[in-house]
Amino acid sequence: MATKPTKQIIRPYGDRRDDGVVQLSFTLPVPLSEKAKEAAAVFARKMGFSDVKVAAAERAADTYTFFIVYARTQHSLDYAEIDVPEVVVKKLGFDDLNALIKEKVGRRIVVFGACTGTDTHTVGIDAILNMKGYAGDYGLERYPWFEAFNLGSQVPNEELIKKAMARNADAILVSQVVTQRDVHKDNSRQFIEAAKAAGIHGKTLLLLGGPRVDLKLALELGFDVGFGPGTKPSDVANYIVHQVLQKEGKEDKNVHWEGEPK
Amino acid sequence: MATKPTKQIIRPYGDRRDDGVVQLSFTLPVPLSEKAKEAAAVFARKMGFSDVKVAAAERAADTYTFFIVYARTQHSLDYAEIDVPEVVVKKLGFDDLNALIKEKVGRRIVVFGACTGTDTHTVGIDAILNMKGYAGDYGLERYPWFEAFNLGSQVPNEELIKKAMARNADAILVSQVVTQRDVHKDNSRQFIEAAKAAGIHGKTLLLLGGPRVDLKLALELGFDVGFGPGTKPSDVANYIVHQVLQKEGKEDKNVHWEGEPK
Amino acid sequence: MPGPFIDDAQIARARKLAEDITEPIFELIRRNTTVSVERTVLRFFGISDAGAGGVPLANLMVDRLKAAGVLNKGAAYWYGRALQMGARSPMEAVERLTALPAEKLGPLSPEMEQNLRDEVRAEARAAMDDFKSRIAQRDALRKELGSGQAPHKYVIVATGNIYDDVDQARAAAQAGADIIAVIRSTAQSLLDYVPHGATTEGYGGTYATQENFRIMREALDDEGRKLKRYIQLTNYSSGLCMAEIAFAAAYERLDMLLNDAMYGILFRDINMRRTFIDQYFSRRICAAAGIIINTGEDNYITTADAYDAAHTVIASQFINETFARRAGLKDWQLGLGHSYEIDPYRADTLLLELSQAMLVRRCFPNAPLKYMPPTKHKETDIFFSHAYDVMADLVAIWTRQGIQLLGMMTEAMHTPLLADRYVALKAASYIHRAAAGIDEEFTVREDGKIANRAREVFGKAMELLEECQRDGMVAAIGRGHFGDVKRTETGGKGLDGVLEKAPDYFNPFQDMLEAP
Amino acid sequence: MPGPFIDDAQIARARKLAEDITEPIFELIRRNTTVSVERTVLRFFGISDAGAGGVPLANLMVDRLKAAGVLNKGAAYWYGRALQMGARSPMEAVERLTALPAEKLGPLSPEMEQNLRDEVRAEARAAMDDFKSRIAQRDALRKELGSGQAPHKYVIVATGNIYDDVDQARAAAQAGADIIAVIRSTAQSLLDYVPHGATTEGYGGTYATQENFRIMREALDDEGRKLKRYIQLTNYSSGLCMAEIAFAAAYERLDMLLNDAMYGILFRDINMRRTFIDQYFSRRICAAAGIIINTGEDNYITTADAYDAAHTVIASQFINETFARRAGLKDWQLGLGHSYEIDPYRADTLLLELSQAMLVRRCFPNAPLKYMPPTKHKETDIFFSHAYDVMADLVAIWTRQGIQLLGMMTEAMHTPLLADRYVALKAASYIHRAAAGIDEEFTVREDGKIANRAREVFGKAMELLEECQRDGMVAAIGRGHFGDVKRTETGGKGLDGVLEKAPDYFNPFQDMLEAP
Ligand code: B12
Ligand code: B12
Ligand SMILES: Cc1ncc(COP(=O)(O)O)c(C=O)c1O
Ligand SMILES: Cc1ncc(COP(=O)(O)O)c(C=O)c1O
Fold this sequence. Notes:
The complex is a heterotetramer, with two copies of chain A and two copies of chain C. Chain A is α/β, with parallel strands linked by helices. Chain A has helices at residues 34-46, 94-105, 123-129, 157-166, 183-198, 215-221, 233-247; strands at residues 9-10, 21-28, 49-61, 64-73, 77-78, 109-116, 146-155, 171-175, 205-209, 225-227.
């Protein structure tokens, strides 16, 4: 483990180091007027900004004004204190990973994925699972040592779980793209309830992914892990293999690797 | 005077009333990384935002990351309490104003203007003074009952004051456009010092204008009034006429009018 | 001026292929009806209320008839029977019919049958007159207020709450929007009924209900009067209730509808047969109501790659056009969809996008066309995304799109904020003002990249049309040719709502709508 | 491909008029020198240090000679005298000369005079060799690393602090900038000396000093090596020290310079004669140093209206070109300035801007041209301003500008933030990538708005050139034809720095620079 680093105080950089310049925009539900502009400035000051410049006040509609503000924040931050898990193991490539599964697991890893609930956005889960893959990185279907089933979109959570259990899946991949009013959270919670009811929670690996997903959220919701925007199939493949190895006691529990979710 | 209005609590409107959504962008002097993104989120929370979404983290350079953040502010504001002077008198048009000067002042009002110091931006002061005017509104030179002198740009403060005094000017108009490192404030303060030294401060009307000028700033700096972006020549003409009338005891001191600086 | 690029004869050939391809499907349409078509018939008769638990009366009645195995005679017939039994209101008609035991549903004497049909026909004519008078009202106001210049700027509202939608739609209109689309809640297309009443909860959009239509149209009429500019309204005649929504929308004086012959199949996994039958009746209604349809070819290139699949858009447009024309729609009603979706990190994308949009113009010179903005490759960097949208604004005015859905700089994040729409409208107004008539300034070189690409795409579209003609639409869809999505004829949702018409099937509205 | 629009003969006629117009000015230039030219001579000899209080030695020496009334013989001559008096360093030369009483400055024997001149010439040749070797170094690195595709993306840094400038310039280069301009502090152009050393305080920009040039060039060389792309550097050879800055810049291996034959007169109220004389020598240096000059016609349409005054830009470009060619500059060195400045609330602005940029291309087919973004009508609404800049990016690539200064979305507020540059570079890269070669896709119609407008503007430019030829440049400037600004021949700053050359005036550098 690295030793505790020394302080590294940072602030936003506009035109010079530590000037604290921040650009904001927001709409207030009032007609455009001098009073509205003053209100925008008061607002920015309430939010702790100083040197507030209400650059633009646009009449978005009769009773809405859109503001663009430049201001300075007084806040600073010790960058050394930002805590993000350290990368330890180098991520494995396609061939190495297949070799590792062959050697250490000794059987094909079975995964099931779908975009569940009312969500029809398949492009994300397809990117992870389909042959073609994403950003030049092969999808799990292409890995000889993975057996991947992509059930598509609008799949009821229960159905995904049932089908996965029927094939004794190692991992289930749930994609959630629509997030308005936290529908992704509601649906994910419902998935976890169903997984618990089916008795696979804590046994089968449960992965959540989507543009608004991150590790923290996924854990909160009861998944084992979460993957966000820009995820490559190989990130997911690495995760699953290491987890299977750890579950089977073939790898240390504390191993971290490059590309794992943060 | 209107009676004290009742409370009117407002918050930013993103997609629904009072959701408090604000867009921010800023640069942090750190390389793009997961840690940098987390730092951006911590920053936004320090600034009092909740529901922080670090939407974009762009590699602006090796050691700079540009962030775009959407978040919610918890702050609200009582719009009824924002205090901006009330408009009382209707602003006069070109003909009416000339008629008023003729009738009540009985002589041409003399004004001198320039962009002083090292500032060469003449377009603003020209807009106010030159025949052509601005945004379809005639400049002061066009008013038969104004005598307007435009000395141009890069005029030393002392020279402007000297020439104005030689013609016994009613008002002096100072334009300041370059504001970097507050050069406009420094130069304006120097103008006021010179005006005091010349004994005209508090006597001749002193007007400050420019894209970053407002009434508050102008008053702080020792001017009688300040005019900001979008000022029309007729706003300035109205101001000067009313002030001259008030100085000469021909109008109530508390008169406000439409278009005056706020 | 978009080039010739290709011979007129070639374009005529594409059209002919599309006719051949759709021909067998019209056979299917002729022979079958669906629960949704029958519910629409009831709605025409004024049965638009909902019963206990919010279930629409039209559903109650049709489900009952279907369960009794008699729906194949047509809901209009049974509506007549209920009237004969003395029902004095739609509600009563439903109650009486649904109360009837199955054995009471047998045929009447030939004379009574004839009478019943005459009566129902008379009532249908009255209903149709009422319907048409609503359309006339809309057209009168549209004429009175006038519309802005094309491309008409189309923005979406999607708060989930119709009253918030109204607020935002008014704001958008004030900021320059010509068309407001109320996006539907994500799951609605799979509902086999149209929800009822004003709604305030939805995900990613607001439920399409007749009452919501009414509320929004009323607000836009009011706003349009203030602005002295008619504001058009659109919604989705799509999913499991295409025809019902077409009726409700037309009745509430909407101006446009998203309506595609294949979208539901591909993107909602709705059964093919169901979709083909429903789309036909929905389009008949649109044709009569002077509604402009917006087709959904833009969706193909959100799943498939926009460069590789460009030809599928063209092929599908010819197919959609044929379906539409055969349902009585005129060219001015064809907002054929396409979009600016090529990966912006490729080279020459402005040339490629211009080529594609010019090709569409070349093939469909009299259609308004509906141009969609970049979506899939939008970034969360709102400044980049804004610049990207601006190029789509340029292509839209350049190729004289009738309808342009404006891109939102926050597309990659959330449904639009009020301010996002403002920003998009201001930019589009600028670009439209700056570049109007630019097409008349240049002649496209027939040996340039634009022309060559147009020919290449058209060539591939022809190949695909040939294949569809040879092997049939079902096979082509089965091979994933459209949007990289594969579907089968009997797969997908809603097949159980399809039923073969009885020989004495009765549908006076269809008769009227089909009358030349 | 920009049209013909106009006959080649007409364009040739414009060029001829410009030659006639500038002819009398060359007479003035031949007969006179200026304090700034003479200081430049001293700098060539290596006198680049500053004395107590930061006053440059070149100023000390020239002021002394001027006060003594002997500067008209040329500073080079006096430099030789100082050397003859035994000075072994520039510093010493200055000290010796400035210490001399006026009466000691009389002529030497003819032989000694001849000797002195020979010696000085020899030293000047050595200095010139050194100078040229610096240029060769620059060219070698430029060749080694290679440049990006044109339009070269030009951004400004303007922090006031050279070290902050370096930080931001490196960041900009990483984000895709091809050219870095360090904007000068607001008042510098009126300083009759070049400040000395590294500076960290400036308003609206950073002082142009030789040391600042060196620091920045070094940083960009380093950055360019990392990026494997040569990053060009530019500054201002403008104001009261045109020639001195040209020398210092060339010596420090800058690649371009803002340098205009009339900008100082119009926008800085610098005396006309002073400016004409200074610009000539500065351009001779640029010619020898392979520096691309950037002229300032874009400024005209920040004070005058861009639509109404479009022709003044064209007329001035012909004049600037003639001045430049007569100073030995080749076409590839002419970054003639123009810009996208028409009020965006007018109609057809994209057509008008395209017309203007195409016209400039048509008139100057071999010049790189320098395209400037919108500035005057920029709004504080950064989203709008960004969209507005994007259109300028399009016109730049369309008309094959060699150099494009990128617009900043915060133009109406402040000198650019680091992030503003990033945003602009990302958008411009996208537009350039998307639209490269678009000019080859179309033929401009000779009967369209673009062509007609180009002819109209060219016609007015011809009228103005005719007037200038008839009545003289001085009269034309006096009438406010350029930038709506009126100036007189003897008004403005710096006239007292102009002096008539003595018959035996000596300037070996000018001789070398003028040698064919
Ligand atoms: C393509 C698209 C569609 C297509 C979908 C086609 C299809 N079959 O997928 C169509 C046109 C059909 C569509 C429809 C709708 N859409 Co849509 N759509 C998009 C769009 C443009 C791109 C999404 C995409 O494909 N991204 C590319 C993929 C590769 O990225 P990704 O999903 O993030 O996936 C990556 C990672 O997140 C991760 N990942 C994702 N899932 C998983 C799962 C696991 C287990 C793992 C490990 C990783 C992982 O890996 C992937 C690769 O890196 C976005 C806007 C945008 N630019 O983001 C809107 C967007 C997602 N859509 C939206 C909406 C609202 C809808 C509709 C609901 C609108 C409506 N009411 O009609 C409909 C209905 C859809 C529904 N019920 O779900 C909104 C969602 C708003 C919100 N935040 O809630 C967006 C953001 C647009 C907007 N700004 O309004 N849409
Ligand atoms: C035109 C222009 C120029 C022209 C000026 C020509 C001229 N003779 O005026 C040229 C090209 C020469 C120029 C040069 C420079 N400029 Co300049 N320029 C601009 C530009 C594009 C427009 C300014 C303008 O004309 N606005 C239109 C007028 C009508 O608006 P206005 O000035 O605000 O005036 C209105 C009101 O403020 C008010 N008003 C103004 N004055 C007064 C006075 C009174 C008494 C009253 C009542 C009202 C009033 O009424 C007017 C009408 O409503 C701005 C960017 C922008 N878009 O704002 C940059 C800008 C002002 N320039 C800037 C800079 C830095 C410079 C330079 C210093 C750059 C350099 N280092 O070389 C130089 C040197 C100038 C100097 N020493 O002053 C910066 C200033 C940054 C800052 N905030 O400090 C700006 C903001 C650009 C930028 N983003 O970097 N510039
Ligand atoms: C034709 C068509 N129908 C419907 C939709 C919307 O989807 P939903 O089925 O959720 O209403 C779209 C989306 O763009 C479409 O193009
Ligand atoms: C030719 C030229 N010189 C100089 C400048 C800059 O002004 P300053 O005189 O302050 O250096 C400009 C501004 O754009 C210019 O175009």
